[in-house]
Amino acid sequence: MSNLLFSNIQKDSIKSKFHIDKIYQEAIMYHQQGNITKATTYYQEVLSLQENHAGALHFLGLIAMTQKDYETALHNIEQAISCCKTKAVYWNNYGVVLKMFGRNQEAKTAYENAIKLKSNYADAWANLGQILLLLNEENLKIAYSLNNALTSVPNHSDALSHLAELRRREKQYLECAKILQKLLDLRKDDISLRRQIAECYASSNRYETAAEYFAPIAESQPINVEIQHRYAILLGESGKINEAKQKFTQASFLPNGKSLWRWKHLWYCPIYFDNTRQIDNYWQNLHNELDSAIAEQKIYDWRTLVYDGFTSSFHLPHHNRCCREIKEKFAEFFLPSFQVFHRPKFPFLKRRNGKIRVGFLVTPGHEGGFLRYMSGVVRRLNRNRFEIVLIYHQSTKNRYKNFSQDNEIQHVMFAWHFENAVQTIRESECDIIYYWKVGADVWNFFLPMTRLAPIQCTSWGTHGTSGLKQIDYSLSHNLAEIENAQEHYTEKLFLINEAPTFQPRMKIPKTYSRRELELPEKDAIYFCPHRMSKYYPDYDFYLKEILENDPKGHILLLMGDSPILAKKFQNRMKRNIGETLFRRMIFIPKQSPQRYNCLIAASTMILDSSVYSGGITAYDALSFGVPCITQTGSLLIQRYPYSYYETMKLENAPITTNRDEYVRTAVLLGTDKEYHQLISSQIHEKSDLLFKRNEVISQFEHFFETVVSESSVSLR
Predict the structure, then answer these.
(1) Closest Cα to residue 218, out of 246, 195, 242?
(2) Is there a contact between 120 and 150 (Cβ–Cβ < 8 Å)?
(3) pLDDT of residue 343
(4) Other C-beta atoms lying within 10 Å of the C-beta of residue 528
(5) Residue 395 DSSP label
(6) d(CA 604, CA 212)
(7) What gap in Å lies between CA 333 and CA 327, rounded to an integer?
(8) What is residue 511's predicted lDDT score, i.e. its pLDDT?
(9) Which parts of the chain register pLDDT below 50?
(10) Which residue among 59, 80, 350, 644 is least crowded, i.e. fewest CB within 10 A of its CB?
(11) What element of type H or E holds 434?
(12) How far apart are CA 496 and CA 569, in angstroms?
């Protein structure tokens, strides 16, 4: 009797389980078909028959998640896991919901549990990588998780997206672009992805490629003012000035466009020119268009000019001509918009301590040069006579942490809001503001126009004149300027007896063998460590004659970030130099600072550009005892190494004045080992006269005290 009863109970149980499974499978079918209402009803029916059915609980959790009912989703998936802890998918989706609540550490644990149960679970690895990103875990851990996902599923969309974000954070923009391209191959019509790729190339200074990616976006959205304006910028950065002008003009007439954009193409200058005639034509057009812009006599809202306006191109000083007139025209165009600003009264007249308050202002992106050139000055100014203020953008705070222990240095930080920035800096009540650079970006072009202090000055960071009447003084070295150099400056030129920089000596790299650097191990290496705009077209023929006169030597050329531009320069040089000599030219992309120093130390000499000499580069070379061949001219930017050699009192210094002298001196140093050794030895012996000169500090103090005395008298 009992056996018969057990058999009936067993049969009823099997029948019940079959019934539940049937309902459950139907629920899944409706779920897959997108019929969420019926699927929900059937899942709930399953739970009415078996309240601890993990699968039904899990799927109801997923449905709640898609409906953004995260509380219900969390409850249901937690219930599913309490019923069954061995399903990797439950843990993975539990992590997804936890992330919705910002419970990232718990989400991380959930994903890890999923992976323990299923080691090749691509979704869980991708989600773990994302949560590690949010938790700011080590980049290696993040990459490990995402690469595991991609090992299992090579085109895993989420893993690719998160890996791209990781590379973007690491500022590996080209690697980021490659990853995004894989996503674009999967989603060919994704405009957002295409734009992200374009911006990655722009961040890597590969503007031509960025513009190519952006072109279809601009074509598809002809009345989107933001898209059209951005496309015009990319064209301008690519050197396609006429196309940029057309797009800026079109954008200016769109809804929410700005009339000022009609002139924004004036900001841009091509890096590459085939010949000097093209440079002449470019300058003539620039002068003509600036004259037309100035003639409009329009007044713009000064508070928005850093967002809508422009300054002169960084590349203009590389064209072997004085930039004073052209820079003054850029300033004249915007000057009427700043007439509201007047020179502040002298705060120092009210100060009981009698100290002069000096602010050193640096805009974002220029911290490296300032810290290299000016840290020693800032630290050593006499605190009994000067109050020191560092003025910089809040996003760059970490760059100045080495000054944090000096309680006598005040830090003033401004934000990306121009009107507030002006107020903040003015309220610091500096007697003098020393602008590290003026005109290198829109912020350090327009800030001086607001008259932030009674005295405003700049120096070698600006590489010549600013063109601004609101900059009162330009500080320079008497050995670096010609007799009538004032003609090159809008500001009053103030000459001191030292280079206006407290320059440390760079340490010679521990190892820099040519074999390790993959360079020819014998004979001369003439290194041109120039940014690409320094390769003036006529300079090709200097290089040609060096190779002709030294049949064993090689010329090493730095080519920057852009392969497209590098190819253009190489093709031009091949035409001008000839294919045979061209074979002894070695082209390299932008280098890390460490490798860059190794290349300098391993080279026979540095070849200065004929139109724009090396500043920091020459200091580096002389630190290592490597001669720098320079051709001096009438402009400051052509006389930096000349002034260094004069300071060192170096006999037979490799200073030249024309192409013949330049080639002859370079080849002599490259082929005559005794002569090279003589010059190199003299550099080592006398370079102490160049580095860490305390005399520089007294000269800065003399400058600050003199200009305050002059200006305070004139304003009384």
Answers:
(1) 195
(2) no
(3) 84
(4) 22
(5) G
(6) 40
(7) 10
(8) 81
(9) 1-6, 8-9, 11, 715-716
(10) 350
(11) strand 432-435
(12) 39
Q: How far apart are CA 444 and CA 526, in angstroms?
A: 36
Cβ of 188: how many Cβ atoms within 10 Å?
Answer: 8
Return d(Cα 629, Cα 607) in angstroms, integer. 5
Between CA 536 and CA 273 the distance in angstroms is: 8
Count of helix runs (H) and strand runs (E) in the chain = 29, 13
Side chain identity, residue 497? N
Secondary structure percentages of the chain, helix, strand, coil, to 5:
60, 10, 30
Contacts by 576-584 with C-beta closer than 8 Å and gap 24+? 576/537, 576/540, 576/541, 576/544, 577/540, 577/541, 577/543, 577/544, 577/547, 578/544, 581/544, 581/547, 581/548, 584/547, 584/553, 584/554, 584/555
DSSP of 275-328 = SHHHHHHHHHHHHHHHHHHHHT-----GGGHHHH-----TTGGGGSS--HHHHH
Task: Provide the pLDDT for residue 6.
Answer: 41
φ, ψ of residue 172 in degrees (nearest 5): -90, 70
- At 387, list the tokens: 């109050």
Joined tokens for residue 211: 């513009």
State the pLDDT at residue 4: 42
How far apart CA 465 and CA 113 sit, in angstroms, is 64
> What was the pLDDT predicted at 330?
98
DSSP 608-658: --SSS--SHHHHHHHHTT--EEEE--SSGGG-HHHHHHHHHT-TT--EESS
Residue 222 corresponds to which tokens in the numbers above?
């002809």
Give the bridge partners for 605, in sequence order.
Answer: 526
**What are the C-alpha distances in Å from 584 to residues 59, 191, 549?**
68, 44, 13
Region of 265 on the Ramachandran plot (φ > 0 left; ψ -120 to 50 alpha; else beta): alpha
User: What is the rounded distance in angstroms from the CA atom of residue 169 to the CA atom of residue 182?
Assistant: 19
12-to-19, 52, 189 alpha-carbon distances in Å:
10, 19, 56
Whole-number Å distance between alpha carbons of 280 and 205: 25
Quote the pTM value: 0.89
- State the pLDDT at residue 303: 95
For 257, phi and psi rounded to 5 degrees? -75, 160
Give the distance, in angstroms, between the CA of residue 421 and the centroid of all CA atoms in the same chain.
22
Nearby residues of 228 by Cβ (< 8 Å), 6 or more positions away? 218, 221, 222, 247, 250, 251, 254
Q: The sheet that has 455-458: what strands, in order across it?
A: 409-414, 386-393, 356-362, 432-435, 455-458, 473-477, 492-496
